[in-house]
Amino acid sequence: MAYMSMSLHAVNHRLTNVPVKQLPHLASCLASSISNCGELLSTPQSQKSGKTDSDNAVQIHKLITRLGSLLQDRTYEGRWTAVVLVKALVEAGQWEILRSSEPFVRGLISILAKSDPISTKKMCIITLTRIFHLTYQYPTLVREITTPALPGFITSALNLISVKPSSEPVRKLKPNTPFVEVVLQAVNELIARHPTIFRPFTAQIHSLLQVIIGSTSPTFPEHVLEIAQQLFISLHNCAPKNTGGDEWKSACRMTITSVHAASSYVLRAVVEQWESVDPSLRQMSQPQNYSQEVGNGPDALGLEGWQGLNSGVNRLVVLLRMLSGFVGTATASTVTIPVGAILDLTSRLNMVVYPSGSSDIQANPQIGRAEREQLLTELPRIHIACMKLLLDLVNALETSAIPVAQTILEQVLWVFRAEQFSRDVRTAVYDLVCVLLTRIGPSMTKQSVSSMAFIIRKCCHDLLPPTGNQNAATEKPDPKSKNKSSSQATVNADSFLNPGLKQVRQTSSSSSFPDLTRAASELLAATLTHTPSEFLSPALRAEVDRTLILTSDKNAMLASVLNPFPAMQGRGVGTSILPFLARSHPAETEVECLIRPRMPVVMTGLTANGYVPMEDDDDDEDEDEAITAVPASTSTGFLKPTPTPTLQHDDMMDVEKDIPSPPSKRSYADEVEQPAAPTIATTSPSLQSKKPRFEPKAAAVTQPPLDAASPATFTGTAAISVPTSSIAGPAPVQTPKPAQSSIAKPSALAAAAAADDESDDEMPSLNVDPDTEDEDEDEE
Amino acid sequence: MLSECFIASTLASSKAPASATLRDVGVCVHEFQPTLNLRSTFKKSSTAANCLAVSPSHVFAAQSEKAIVHVYSREKGNQEATVPFPERIRSIAVAGGKNGDVLVLGTQGGRLILWETCTGRQVATTASHLRPVTSLVVDPNSNFILSGSSDASIHVWSLVDLLSFTKPPSGRDRQPPNSPIRTFSNHRAAITAIAVGHSAGRYNIAVSAADDSTAIAWDYHTGRLLRTFLLPSNAKSLALDPADRAFYVGYEDGSIQSIDFYKNQSIQNPLHDPSLQSTPSQPPAEDRWAPPSADCGAAHALTLCYDGMTLLSGHQNGKVLSWTVGRKKYASTVADYTHPVTNLFMLPPNGLPHPSLDLKRVAHTIVKPRYDSSLSETSQAAGAVPADYTFSTHLLPSISSKPNSAKPDQFTEAFSHAYFPESMLEEGLAELAAFSQPTSNGAPVSSIAQGISDEDLAAKDSQISQLEAELATLKKKSSVNETARQSTTDEVTKLRSDLANLHDYINELHEKQEQAQREKILRQARKEERETRRREAWFAAEKKGKKGDAVLRKMDAEDTVMTSDTDDQSSDE
């Protein structure tokens, strides 16, 4: 307190003694002193007793009076300083200062009408808005300060950006005023809290907003547009009592109608296949004059007309953004969101896509090729706005979006299929699909998951470093490639001359499109987390895992580890990229609690016999794909001089086999040890599935135990360095045990081996890992 | 202030409540912590077990022995609607996450009815249960519904499939639409209670109890049995630990039993240990907690408080008892509602920041189920969302700012700053400095200058300097040009003067030539004249008879004198 009263004293001293002209340079430090005295300034008067406190009260009073007079000062510098300090004082003092802030408010409003510098006026508007904002929670202060002063403030603020020509409630925007943004922000901040005071001004504000939103060329900056749209939506707050919801609804409906009207003109170069579900919209299409340049007159919202396709697309995008504002902005009361109409609209806009192999558009013969081509190049922009709208809709409805989620997903897939060449479309689609997956992912069917496979592939592709010049490198080692010479001719020589180039490129590629990368990695994590993991085809899952390893994306890797690919009959034990996660993020809490749990953990969900039955035959095809796809990636992986460990998913599988098993392995080992030879025959099926694991060990038994302990049995190539190291954990634990038991009961082992042979067909060939891959490669 | 409440509902009985406040009361909101007291009540309701559902805005109470659901508004504290249904409702649950926008109703006839309370849409399923649906739970993702019936089976339904307008491509097994995706039929008698785990992941569990004295933990994603527990008697109610470590069973005699999943020191989650799955386990008898008195009656409902350490049970005699989980015993009687307490719900505590439970919207009123043709799923075009599908809700201002407005905009930054951000102050200072220049000259600030913002000034400054530089180069160029021109002109004038001089010279020369010509002619003439004179003199001398030659000689001498005197030029001739 002593410090505060001292610094308050110092502030007062400087305010009165320093020449006004030099005050602005002190303003910053004075303001910070004042805001440091918050505790002192906000102490209620009634609690102030005693000498020092009365002294403080005097100081505070002095400060308030001095600032009041500075606000009326003749110089710009004085007024400027006063505005800065008033804001600091009000923020620090809260109620205690606010209750005596009436003269401040008057002074600030009068500054708005003076010929002060722009920054003074801007800060004035902000300070006033802040004062009104702070008083809102105290009804008495609202009555004393806000209610009388607010109309004056609104008028002078609107006067800054516009002129009111006559008595009619319309305003004309001044061209090029620097205040548009700050005034709109202030109005937007206050309108929801003081709807009745703003009610007389709604028509004026509305006319201003129409101009801002409706201007097609030149358009206002994006943030001004955004705030104007928000304000436009918030105008419904001012509707007379209980009609706010209706006002909102009609504004929303009009926006939808306007979009429909605009798109009838914008999309005229193609014949639309869409048919509205709303019967009233079906008859809407009017004959157009195709000979004229595309354009439209004033629409339902009262926005002025536009000419030219570019303006039309701009208008469409602005309106779609406004529509997403409608579902994203807080409302005054209960509103009815026209979900059906919005989806009808987006289905119309999303129906027209860039022509590709699967989808072709039907051209309108009456429109020239130039316009049609221009439209096609503008389509992604429209679709991005649609995606944003749908994203906002899903975010607003949350779980209630479930009924429409599948509909949205189908629209998205349709657009993505045709327009995945556009980076922004991809980003928007990833974001939207990610949100949809969190809602409906767990109950997706195999069909819907596989319909999304191409998005996930593209996603991996986006995350991985560019592989353009690897094609040549991959072709070269392939002995079967006939066009070897021709491919050599097109090789990027840089990649041979400068191996470091790739490294540079990898680091740069991740930072080049941060939005796309973020969206893609979020989508991968969401896919792994929310969709049933058995529905992803093994090849795709391998590609995803490979991408995750190469990008070291912690969240997605965690998602992959926590949702392991289920073990399949004949495909070995479930796979996991856990070692990579442990390598790349050893110090993360999530990794720690995953690997060294203090509480019991849920293991991979295996059925009694250890496998999830795969019911569909077409899985076999997938597996075939996996097998064929693998060697290709293997060869690229080995030859790439990448800095990250280039482990293909085969290698992962090696690892995977070992990772989830240690605990169970131990228990199995225990089981084997405890029951003596005779009980082996009675072992449960689970034990049987376990037996093959002993096979390599059994071979090792003939050798000295030391040999067995060495990782020599794991004939890993260089690329498998990580797996072998991870294997080192369980291996030493195990090797002594088979050694002992086998010595004690060689017959048991022989029996086990025999059983092994018999039950080969029903058991996965667990016998260790790299071999299978090597074989695959050899076959290649 | 931090407070925790629970909601209890009762089944009307013939007994009259002791206190007047509880007369007619069917649903009570009761503060549990910090002080026990009755917060509010909803009247005229009688609910059987599993017939109460609570959403953040409403309480839904399916009336026993009737085909109606009472809807109470929690905000207004009154009964908002009475919704009739075609069949008796035997169980009820709320789906739709934190907002609870979908009400799931299990009917006497064995079907489910889904009612979207914000849109009024209603979807009915096939009557897959052979007996009434007596218990219903919805998983934390709102993706699956588990319905237990007295026909001993539990169906798993996909909420997404039931509600979707566009049916996702279905699997190979062509099921009739709106039928369960899975059936769990390990129980041998009527299902009495189901509880679902708290995980959103795919290894979530469900625990179900039936009248065959068993409780089974199973995986509802696959329908796989995880553990079977042989209970001492028939369980009436179930509650699961918040961390899914144990579950609690309420019995007919009013006793409670806690069953811990983690009994053995195993590194593997015992639920997922295949070796334990086939063998039913019998929880030890000491885990059974005896009720304080024998007349408590059956424990119809169980609920756990937020920290999971206190268990509340609602009993047949109208009492709500609290039990300490840690000490495994009865703690106190929380409330006495006279009528049998059939449902108990612990509400999430007030005043605890809970970002995942923050509502982004709230439904003040429900939309009653609509039966109009456009929304019934048979009449509409396949897959299309009808145009009049609207969603009534009140969108609330989001507490956390939107993530997409990552770029801090000047206004919001200044708005929330203690005074003004440094950048803004500097901008203002610069502007003031620019302003003070004209004022120091004594000139009034022109109104035009006002319109120029700092950026404009800076831009102009740079433009001016650029222009100046340009000007300088131009000047230089022009001066170079000028000099060049100058020199050419000089040269030209010089040449001209030279030319003039040359002309003069030529003229002079011409003159001289002419003069020389003239003189030559003159001399010629003189010569001829002299010749003539000499001839004449010779002739005269001859005539006179004098020697003509002598005269001539004499004349020559005279001539030479004459010529040397008069005309020196002739000397060369």
TrEMBL record, chain A:
<dbReference type="GO" id="GO:0006364">
    <property type="term" value="P:rRNA processing"/>
</dbReference>
<feature type="compositionally biased region" description="Polar residues">
    <location>
        <begin position="712"/>
        <end position="727"/>
    </location>
</feature>
<dbReference type="GO" id="GO:0005634">
    <property type="term" value="C:nucleus"/>
</dbReference>
<feature type="domain" description="Pre-rRNA-processing protein RIX1 N-terminal">
    <location>
        <begin position="8"/>
        <end position="218"/>
    </location>
</feature>
<dbReference type="Pfam" id="PF08167">
    <property type="entry name" value="RIX1"/>
</dbReference>
<protein>
    <recommendedName>
        <fullName>Pre-rRNA-processing protein RIX1</fullName>
    </recommendedName>
</protein>
<feature type="compositionally biased region" description="Acidic residues">
    <location>
        <begin position="770"/>
        <end position="780"/>
    </location>
</feature>
<dbReference type="InterPro" id="IPR012583">
    <property type="entry name" value="RIX1_N"/>
</dbReference>
<feature type="region of interest" description="Disordered">
    <location>
        <begin position="634"/>
        <end position="780"/>
    </location>
</feature>
<feature type="region of interest" description="Disordered">
    <location>
        <begin position="467"/>
        <end position="489"/>
    </location>
</feature>
<comment type="similarity">
    <text>Belongs to the RIX1/PELP1 family.</text>
</comment>
<dbReference type="InterPro" id="IPR016024">
    <property type="entry name" value="ARM-type_fold"/>
</dbReference>
<feature type="compositionally biased region" description="Basic and acidic residues">
    <location>
        <begin position="648"/>
        <end position="659"/>
    </location>
</feature>
<feature type="compositionally biased region" description="Low complexity">
    <location>
        <begin position="741"/>
        <end position="754"/>
    </location>
</feature>
<feature type="compositionally biased region" description="Polar residues">
    <location>
        <begin position="680"/>
        <end position="689"/>
    </location>
</feature>
<dbReference type="InterPro" id="IPR011989">
    <property type="entry name" value="ARM-like"/>
</dbReference>
<keyword id="KW-0539">Nucleus</keyword>
UniProtKB/TrEMBL annotation, chain B:
<feature type="compositionally biased region" description="Basic and acidic residues">
    <location>
        <begin position="545"/>
        <end position="557"/>
    </location>
</feature>
<dbReference type="InterPro" id="IPR015943">
    <property type="entry name" value="WD40/YVTN_repeat-like_dom_sf"/>
</dbReference>
<feature type="compositionally biased region" description="Polar residues">
    <location>
        <begin position="270"/>
        <end position="280"/>
    </location>
</feature>
<dbReference type="InterPro" id="IPR001680">
    <property type="entry name" value="WD40_rpt"/>
</dbReference>
<feature type="repeat" description="WD">
    <location>
        <begin position="126"/>
        <end position="159"/>
    </location>
</feature>
<feature type="region of interest" description="Disordered">
    <location>
        <begin position="270"/>
        <end position="292"/>
    </location>
</feature>
<dbReference type="GO" id="GO:0005656">
    <property type="term" value="C:nuclear pre-replicative complex"/>
</dbReference>
<dbReference type="InterPro" id="IPR036322">
    <property type="entry name" value="WD40_repeat_dom_sf"/>
</dbReference>
<protein>
    <recommendedName>
        <fullName>Pre-rRNA-processing protein IPI3</fullName>
    </recommendedName>
</protein>
<comment type="similarity">
    <text>Belongs to the WD repeat IPI3/WDR18 family.</text>
</comment>
<feature type="coiled-coil region">
    <location>
        <begin position="457"/>
        <end position="531"/>
    </location>
</feature>
<dbReference type="GO" id="GO:0006261">
    <property type="term" value="P:DNA-templated DNA replication"/>
</dbReference>
<dbReference type="InterPro" id="IPR045227">
    <property type="entry name" value="WDR18/Ipi3/RID3"/>
</dbReference>
<feature type="repeat" description="WD">
    <location>
        <begin position="184"/>
        <end position="228"/>
    </location>
</feature>
<keyword id="KW-0698">rRNA processing</keyword>
<dbReference type="Pfam" id="PF00400">
    <property type="entry name" value="WD40"/>
</dbReference>
<keyword id="KW-0175">Coiled coil</keyword>
<keyword id="KW-0539">Nucleus</keyword>
<keyword id="KW-0677">Repeat</keyword>
<comment type="subunit">
    <text>Component of the RIX1 complex, composed of IPI1, RIX1/IPI2 and IPI3 in a 1:2:2 stoichiometry. The complex interacts (via RIX1) with MDN1 (via its hexameric AAA ATPase ring) and the pre-60S ribosome particles.</text>
</comment>
<dbReference type="GO" id="GO:0006364">
    <property type="term" value="P:rRNA processing"/>
</dbReference>
<comment type="function">
    <text>Component of the RIX1 complex required for processing of ITS2 sequences from 35S pre-rRNA.</text>
</comment>
